[in-house]
Amino acid sequence: MGSGDEKQDDDLGLFREAMGDVEPLRHDKAAPWRRRRKPVPLELPGDAQPGDEFGDTAEEAPEFLEFRRPGIQHRLFQDLQRGVIEPEASLDLHGMRVDDARRALGRFLDQSLKARRRCVRIIHGKGKRSGGQPVIKQRVNQWLPQRKEVLAFCSAPRWDGGTGAAYVLLSRKWGGV
Questions:
Q1: What's the Rg (C-alpha) of the chain?
Q2: At a CB cut-off of 8 Å and minimum separation 6, what does 171 contact?
Q3: Residue 16 covered by a domain
Q4: In Å, what is the CA distance from 133 to each residue of 57, 62, 128, 138?
Q5: 17, part of any domain
Q6: Smr domain spans which residues (predicted)?
Q7: How many domains does the chain have?
Q8: Which domain holds residue 57?
Q9: In a domain, 7, yes or no
Q10: 82 near 162, Cβ under 8 Å?
Q11: Residue 144's domain is classified under what CATH number?
């Protein structure tokens, strides 16, 4: 039995020697694996036109979208940016005309608020089909702050759409913050 204990001690010693200058990985930088969700189909409520409340002026959107209402904690916003707060539903606005996208976004936000969703993903694209100009992205960046129920939004993490999508943090109170 003595030789087995010596071999185990030798193995342990060799292992410790080999691992002596190894530093532990920092886990807060790793992007968590997330399963992609399919966009939620919209229900069209009669002749109502959600999204008509959005004003329109053509503004150039930055590459990375960021908006946070006063009072939203920095840590909460960081969690949104990192994808720690997982979207509960998605809306894909790819290929839509501006008016159609506006109405779809209004309906989607109304449905999400009624369902008490905390975080949703809006896929706006990067504008590759519109002459290099991200038209829908620009409008989404303009429209979202106009809804008081939108507490914050930012570009999605790279693994979930990156600059072609936005994570939106919603108030759980219907009709306002």
A1: 23
A2: 113, 148, 149, 150, 151, 177
A3: no
A4: 15, 11, 7, 9
A5: no
A6: 91-171
A7: 1
A8: 28-170
A9: no
A10: no
A11: 3.30.1370.110
With H, G, I as helix, E, B as strand and everything else as coil, classify residue 169: strand
d(CA 72, CA 59): 25
Tell me the two tokens of residue 169: 């943090």
Q: Is residue 21 part of a domain?
A: no
29 DSSP assignment: G
If one counts every other C-beta atom within 10 angstroms of the C-beta of residue 40, the result is 18
* CB-CB contact of 139 with 98 (8 Å): yes
Residue type, 71: G
> Helix or strand or coil: residue 164?
helix
pLDDT at 156: 93
- What does the pLDDT read at residue 27? 61
Distance, in Å, from the CA atom of 89 to the CA atom of 92, rounded to the nearest integer, reads: 10
In this predicted model, what pLDDT tens digit does every residue of 32-84 receive, in sequence order? 666 666 665 655 555 545 555 555 555 565 668 899 999 999 999 999 999 99
Range with the poorest average pLDDT among 7-21, 22-36, 125-139, 149-163: 22-36
Any idea how long the chain is?
177
- Can you give the pTM of this predicted structure? 0.65
